[in-house]
Amino acid sequence: MRGKGVGKLLFDRLIEEAKEKKYSGMKWQVLDWNEPAINFYKKYPEVNFDSGWLNCSINF
Q1: How are the residues of the chain apportioned to helix, strand and coil, as percentages rounded to the nearest 5?
Q2: Where are the domains of the chain?
Q3: Residue 26 Cα distances to 3, 29, 38, 48, 58, angstroms
Q4: What is the predicted pLDDT for the residue at 41?
Q5: I need a surface site. Which of 12, 26, 29, 51 has the fewest CB within 10 A?
Q6: For residues 18 and 21, what is the distance between their CA atoms, to the nearest angstrom?
Q7: What is the pLDDT of residue 31?
Q8: Cα–Cα distance for residue pair 26/16, rounded to 1 Å
Q9: Alpha helices in 1-60 (DSSP H)
Q10: pTM
Q11: Which is more confidently placed, 60 or 43?
């Protein structure tokens, strides 16, 4: 459904609901290689990117 505006509608509604509930903000993670998602979030000037986070895991 990329490019059809569905993600924007959902994200805008999520922001609206968080503000209605008086939340202080939202946090999430996106992988550095996920350029479509990064470009999507960059359309929102209030989104801050923190380059200090790394995701780590160990599989046994």
Answers
A1: 40, 0, 60
A2: 6-42
A3: 24, 10, 16, 11, 27
A4: 93
A5: 51
A6: 5
A7: 86
A8: 11
A9: 6-20, 35-42
A10: 0.78
A11: 43
pLDDT in tens, 2-54: 889 999 999 999 999 999 999 999 989 888 888 999 899 999 999 988 877 77
- The pair of three-digit structure tokens given for residue 59, joined into one six-digit string: 């599989």
Which tokens sit at 11?
A: 């994200």
Closest among 36, 16, 38, 39 to 26, alpha carbons compared:
16
Let me know: does 29 contact 53? Beta carbons within 8 Å.
yes
Token reading at 47: 């989104």
Reading the block at residue 18, the tokens are 């968080």
- CA–CA separation, 23 vs 19, rounded Å? 6
Tokens linked to 7:
């993600």
What pLDDT does 40 receive?
93
